[in-house]
Amino acid sequence: METRQKKLFFIYNPHSGKAQIKNKISEIIDLFVKNHYEVTVHPTQEREDALHMVEQKSGEYDMIVFSGGDGTVNEVVSGLMKTGRRPVLGYIPSGTVNDFAASLHIPRDLRKAAHLIVEGMPFDCDIGGFNDKYFSYVAAFGIFTDVAYQTPQHFKNILGKTAYVLEGAKQLYNLKSYHMTVCYQDKVLEDDFIFGLITNSTSVGGFKGYRGKGVKLDDGEFEVSLIKAPKNPIEMQIIISALLQKEINQDFITTFRASELKIVCDEEVSWTLDGEFGGSYTEVSIQNHCRAIRIMTDPIKMIESLMEAESEEG
């Protein structure tokens, strides 16, 4: 009896990063075909094209493979979360930073990432809900959070992470604070904040390690960090030093874990979702969708990461 050939939808952003994926397309498709997949290829044509294509096509395929940066990740995940049927995902990172891939131990090398898709194991990963939208690894507001989507693509391609640093340095001279009420786990926090992160990641902005200990990507909880507004340059220096040294100064930086939270502000606050502009709101509800998607990863490295997280918590 002939085995049914599995169907794979391969969607990629041809402009992501330095557009290196264009030189590997034929080789990657050949690898999938050799592993008994019937492959359909779609290069994205415009913003949110990946979101709409995944939303429309997910029910027709056994696997969806995508290549691009964190913005492409957000579109694919958002499209998948809007559907009733969620096939396994495979990711070939080709963006400038690739935080999502770093957290899942997906290699930056295009060939290795493609081989991981056919040789690895699926991992059930949490996804964030943000009002009626979704994010794969971070929702953020405040200083520096608009750097990713305000940095021109050609600067990202040429300078890499340096482009983000240069763009972010401009904002040190224009600090803005927001008076917010944050509700989580029957607790209420009210203060003025200049920066906030709600994450499910071990890496944000390409920088790993500062998120704290015991970070897990499938535990149904976010890691939340809120930075209070400094009252003078000395306090600002203390905050910067704490971040650079990966230390939490409780006088200025509030951290906690939560499966859901609500944030209210008396003025509109601009948010980024996975490095892309997510809209401006006076009120947001954020919910963790535990183990909502399955994505191919390296099982050995994921087990090592889990054991490391558990030992840190212990």
From TrEMBL:
Pfam families attached to this UniProt entry: DAGK_cat
SMART domains: DAGKc
DAGKc domain mapped to chain residues: 3-134
Keyword Isomerase: no
Lipid biosynthesis as UniProt keyword: yes
GO biological process: phospholipid biosynthetic process
Cofactor (UniProt): Mg(2+)
PROSITE patterns tied to this protein: DAGK (PS50146)
UniProt keywords, alphabetically: Kinase, Lipid biosynthesis, Lipid metabolism, Magnesium, Metal-binding, Phospholipid biosynthesis, Phospholipid metabolism, Transferase
Domain of life of the organism encoding this protein: Bacteria
GO molecular function, one term: ATP-dependent diacylglycerol kinase activity
Annotated GO CC locations: plasma membrane
InterPro entries documented for this protein: ATP-NAD_kinase_N (IPR017438), Diacylglycerol/lipid_kinase (IPR005218), Diacylglycerol_kinase_cat_dom (IPR001206), Lipid_Phosphate_FormReg (IPR050187), NAD/diacylglycerol_kinase_sf (IPR016064)
Family to which this protein belongs: Belongs to the diacylglycerol/lipid kinase family.
Protein name: Diacylglycerol kinase family lipid kinase
Protein species of origin: Massiliimalia timonensis
